[in-house]
Amino acid sequence: RISSLTAEIATERARMESKDQAGKEKLRLAITALEDNIKEEEARIADLQAEQKTFEERSSVLRETKVGCHREADKCRDLVTQTRTGLEEMMRSTSNRLNAFGRGVVEALDMIDQTQWRNSKPIGPIGKFVKLHNPKFSRIIETTLDKTLDAFLVESHADRVTLDAIFRRCACQSRIVICKPELFDYSKGEPDSRFTTMLNMLDIQNEVVKRQLINLNRIEQIILIEQRIEGDKMVATNNGQLPRNVTACLTADGYSVGSKTGGLSSQSTNLIRETSRLGENIASAIEREKQVLAARQRALEHAQHSLKETEKELEELRRKHERSAIAVRQCKERINKANSEIQQTRERLYSDEPAKIAALETELEQFTEQMESLQTQFRDHVAQQKLKEEELEQVQADLVLIDRKMDVIRDRAESKREAAEEKASQRQTHADHIIYWNAKRTTLETKRSHLEKARAEASAKVEETISDARKVCEERVEVEHALAKLDRMISECQARIEEIERSSGMSLAEVAEKAQLHITAYKKAKEELSSITQLVDVLKTSHRLRMSKWMQFRESMTIRTKMHFSTHL
């Protein structure tokens, strides 16, 4: 009966399905269509999100470009302002060349002519007496001399105070240099004649001005070349050193080649804007400055145009990103709506079945309960059957346990094999490490030997320095300050020495040489004085002896005369 009920329920359900198959198929097709729509919307969302990511990456690049355009525009704007200011100053200097030397110079010169000076009248500005032979080197020479061209020369501190007061009244910011009008010989400090020095490139009309430019800027030891490659070849052929009596090598395009400490180094120089202080043709200089101004204005316009284009593209990307975000939101809304419709359709598809099937299932449950009551009557047989089933399950469990043990053994074997492979890999890695560290140890030992050699050389140099210091002062000076403070004190002393050199018109080496000459002359004079003192003592002794003999001779002559006189009487 249970089997017949089950078959009848299945038959009834089949009948119901065949009866309502068309409606259910329609609902299933509707669900499939909605699911396809959901997949299409999800694919569109993925495309829109990828597009948004592209927009964001492009926006990031454009924001960086915008920052760069802002910086470029600001830089171009500053350059245009500087060039326009320089052009205005050059236009003012067309009426009077002295305007190129700074504010208040013309008024200061008028007041200098009307003032009484303790020594000779101040000389200046220095650039007024300087002209350039080759305009190709005008910017590098003007950059090197710069403030020195605006300077004034006086002979005493009193004249300096007077001139400083005039400068304050005229708002003039020129430098004042105290110097003696000594026309010293500078030929010994010049390099080989095959080099073109800054001194050779300048036509200096005042010899005092020439000597002060040599003192202040060492123009006789600065050589000029047209191209940097020429300087590199010169330094390379001289074992990485600058030639004799050369302190700097400058190129026409603003590079400094080589250094005093040696080495093939080239450094770019920040060139100042061009002026007419070196006696150039002011009209051509103004024309060049106008061309530079026009080029910089074009660069500024280009930078501003690029900035506007970048901002415009950023705004367009922002609008596209917003539209894409709206489209994604709309797609998600349609997906949610489709999911809701699918849920409703499925509920309609799986609605309650007819009451006949429910009655058949109730009857089936009743017969099932009767079957269970019958089974209780045959419980012993069922218990034996359960025992057999439990034994069977135990055997199956034992088989499963054996299978598990075999799996464990296989896993252990696999792990052992992997461990062996790992050990082999580690062994190879350790061998590679041993080779690497042996090579590194060899390198470090070589480096240590070089460092020990350098330390020995440094120790020898320190001993030599200590020996030289003891020649100056036998008593060792205890260091009471930190290294940074000592360096700062040394820098201050060097700055003070340079100031003294500039005020005295002589370098420290020249002062030391001159002092050594005076000391030598003093020692020689002292020795001569000592020898003269000895000669004076000898002459005094000789004089006393001669006077003594003279007195004896005089007395003997008196006696002899008396005797002769008596004889004749």
Describe this structure in words.
With 569 residues, the protein is mainly alpha-helical. 73% of the residues lie in helices and 5% in strands. It has 13 helices and eight strands. It has helices spanning 2-19, 21-93, 105-113, 138-145, 157-170, 198-201, 207-217, 228-237, 282-349, 355-377, 379-472, 483-504, 508-568, and strands at 130-132, 152-154, 176-178, 202-204, 222-225, 248-251, 255-257, 266-268. The strands form three sheets. A four-stranded mixed β-sheet has the order 5-6-7-8, with helices on one face. The protein has a two-stranded antiparallel ribbon with strand order 1-4. A hairpin with a 3-residue loop joins strand 6 (248-251) and strand 7. The protein is elongated and about 215 Å long. It starts with a helix and ends with a helix.
Outline the fold blueprint:
Blueprint: H1 2-19, H2 21-93, H3 105-113, E1 130-132, H4 138-145, E2 152-154, H5 157-170, E3 176-178, H6 198-201, E4 202-204, H7 207-217, E5 222-225, H8 228-237, E6 248-251, E7 255-257, E8 266-268, H9 282-349, H10 355-377, H11 379-472, H12 483-504, H13 508-568
Parallel strand pairs: 2-3, 5-6
Antiparallel strand pairs: 1-4, 6-7, 7-8
Helix pairs in contact: 1-10, 2-9, 3-5
